């Protein structure tokens, strides 16, 4: 069962579910979020193993 | 540092430091970082051969020989107490990579990554090894590690993986350029790179015993990560990275590094190695010194050598030699034996190999393609060279490459006088200023 996600991690999941995109695009959308908070939320996504990658360099 | 350091005093977001470094002609020191109180960040320290030469205390055309000197006087490191890198020690739940200024580097990167790393590991048979590997952020206590290319540490990891065991590693960031050069050097597997760094310094490298792994790190480092590579093989996606080949790479499959301990100085300076230029300038003297050694081992007398930055200081070696019959070819074979050098050019010592026009002239008039080219097939290659088509190899596969040598020395049997360069009549005697 997936661990409860932080609001920011949930937002990131929505972003990449709605539109597969490159990492920098996620960063650009969340520029107002302090970088340490963004990194922790990104870590939640990685730990939950919900990311997959393809050769076109997109996260989805 | 001879006017080579630019200071940024306004607080900077860590997401923007690489962009600022890339636009600065000087090395960069960021004195205040947003959201990272107490941290400073230094970047792009060695993005020119001039600054590399300054760091090595020699002239720009002497960096290869200076590096070679260091290789010739290996000095054993010493373990010291009260190391600066251990002023702050964080373990357990306090391990949080998000609390260190992990920088964004390139537009198409798959995440932020650590670039200026000095990574230490040990093998019971081969001993201690130091290298430099990129670590892309995964979570507060995990990174990837770009262990795709053949290396001693890759072998150490494979040996542990075969036993189903982890490999302990320690990662130091913010080390002296001599440590970074030693880590870049492809030393024989049983040679400890700390001895090479000691030779470059001319004194033993002071080391600190790690707290949670059986390894030692440079005591003067700014930041240290301790932990282990999980025995999962090359299965975790990592990247793309902006590569030192100046290309945005593809996703790779790599092991995962789990961190047990973070140590740093009380007033740490994070080091951002600015890819690709800083990496390329660090690579050049190592490749050049390896070329000089290979030539001497082949009993060829080198006069000058250059690993051009267009080849990332890595894939091409150009050398001029004092040639005896047949040594053009011997020199090519020696140069092509160096790491992943895939193009070697050899000239006589009357050619200035730093002058592209002079080099073109030699290749035009001293080369016959049916006699003076050497092609070697199936040599060791590097994934990040797209012409290798490494995507066909599958996860964990190792690529091979073809190598080309061009003998641009005066061919045997052609009299030297046929290459006498024209000189303008009276040039040494008549001066324009006398007629203005």
What does this 3D model show about the protein?
The complex is a heterodimer of chains A (60) and B (436). With 60 residues, chain A is an all-alpha fold. Chain A is 53% helix and 0% strand. Chain A has one domain. Chain A has helices at residues 7-18, 23-29, 35-47. In chain A, helix 1 crosses helix 3 (35-47). Chain A is globular, with a radius of gyration of 11 Å. Chain B is α+β, with helices and mostly antiparallel strands and 436 residues long. Chain B folds into two domains: 61-264, Electron Transport, Fmn-binding Protein, Chain A (Pnp Oxidase, Chain A), CATH 2.30.110.10; 298-419, UbiD C-terminal domain-like (3-Layer(aba) Sandwich), CATH 3.40.1670.10. Chain B contains nine helices and 23 strands. Chain B has helices spanning 17-22, 49-56, 63-71, 152-162, 177-184, 193-201, 277-297, 327-336, 356-365, and strands at residues 5-8, 27-30, 40-43, 78-79, 88-91, 113-114, 117-123, 127-131, 135-139, 142-144, 167-173, 206-209, 216-218, 223-229, 236-238, 252-254, 256-264, 269-272, 301-306, 316-322, 343-348, 373-380, 400-408. In chain B, the strands form five sheets. In chain B, strands 5, 6, 7, 8, 9, 10, 11, 14 and 17 form a nine-stranded antiparallel sheet that branches. In chain B, strands 19-20-21-23-22 form a five-stranded mixed sheet, with helices on both faces. Chain B is globular and about 80 Å long. The two termini of chain B are 41 Å apart. The A-B interface holds A 22-24, 27, 31, 34-37, 39-40, 42-44, 46-47, 51-55, 57, 59 and B 13-15, 34-36, 96-99, 101-102, 104, 107-112, 137-140, 142, 237, 240, 248, 250-251, 391.
């Amino acid at each position: 069962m997936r661990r409860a996600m932080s609001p920011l991690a949930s937002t990131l999941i929505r972003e990449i579910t709605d539109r597969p995109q490159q990492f920098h695009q996620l960063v650009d959308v969340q520029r107002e979020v302090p970088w340490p908070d963004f990194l922790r939320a990104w870590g939640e996504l990685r730990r939950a193993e919900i990311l997959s990658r393809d050769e076109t360099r997109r996260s989805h | 540092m001879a006017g080579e350091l630019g200071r940024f005093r306004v607080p900077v977001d860590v997401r923007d430091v690489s962009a600022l470094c890339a636009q600065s002609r000087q090395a960069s020191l960021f004195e205040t970082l947003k959201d990272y109180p107490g941290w400073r960040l230094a970047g792009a320290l060695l993005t020119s051969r001039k600054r590399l030469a300054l760091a090595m205390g020699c002239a720009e055309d002497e960096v290869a020989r200076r590096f070679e000197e260091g290789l010739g006087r290996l000095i054993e490191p010493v373990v010291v107490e009260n190391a600066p890198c251990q002023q702050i020690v964080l373990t357990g739940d306090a391990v949080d990579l998000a609390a260190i200024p992990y920088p964004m580097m390139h537009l198409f990167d798959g995440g932020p990554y650590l670039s200026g790393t000095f990574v230490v590991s040990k093998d019971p048979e081969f001993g201690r090894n130091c290298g430099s590997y990129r670590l892309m952020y995964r979570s507060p206590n995990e990174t990837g590690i770009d262990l795709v290319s053949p290396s001693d540490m890759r072998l150490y990891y494979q040996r542990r993986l075969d036993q189903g065991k982890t490999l302990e590693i320690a990662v130091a960031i913010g080390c002296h350029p001599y440590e970074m050069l030693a880590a870049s050097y492809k030393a024989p597997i049983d040679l400890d790179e700390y001895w090479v760094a000691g030779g470059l310094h001319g004194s033993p490298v002071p080391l600190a015993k790690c707290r949670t792994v059986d390894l030692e790190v440079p005591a003067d480092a700014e930041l240290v990560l301790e932990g282990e590579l999980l025995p999962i093989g090359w299965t975790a996606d990592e990247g793309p990275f902006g590569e030192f080949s100046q290309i945005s790479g593809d996703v790779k499959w790599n092991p995962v590094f789990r961190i047990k301990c973070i140590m740093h100085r009380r007033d740490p300076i994070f080091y951002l190695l600015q890819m690709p230029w800083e990496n390329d300038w660090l690579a050049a003297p190592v490749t050049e010194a390896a070329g000089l050694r290979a030539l001497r081992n082949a009993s060829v007398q080198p006069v000058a050598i250059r690993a051009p930055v267009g080849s990332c200081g890595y894939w091409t070696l150009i050398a001029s030699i004092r040639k005896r019959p047949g040594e053009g070819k011997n020199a090519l074979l020696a140069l092509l034996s160096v790491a992943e050098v895939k193009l070697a050019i050899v000239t006589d010592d009357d050619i200035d190999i730093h002058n592209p026009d002079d080099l073109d002239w030699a290749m035009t008039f001293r080369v016959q393609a049916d006699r003076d080219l050497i092609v070697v097939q199936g040599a060791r290659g590097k994934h990040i060279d797209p012409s290798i088509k490494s995507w066909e190899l599958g996860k964990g596969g190792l690529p091979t490459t073809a190598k080309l040598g061009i003998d641009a020395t005066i061919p045997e049997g052609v009299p030297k006088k046929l290459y006498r360069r024209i000189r303008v009549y009276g040039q040494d005697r008549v001066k324009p200023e006398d007629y203005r």
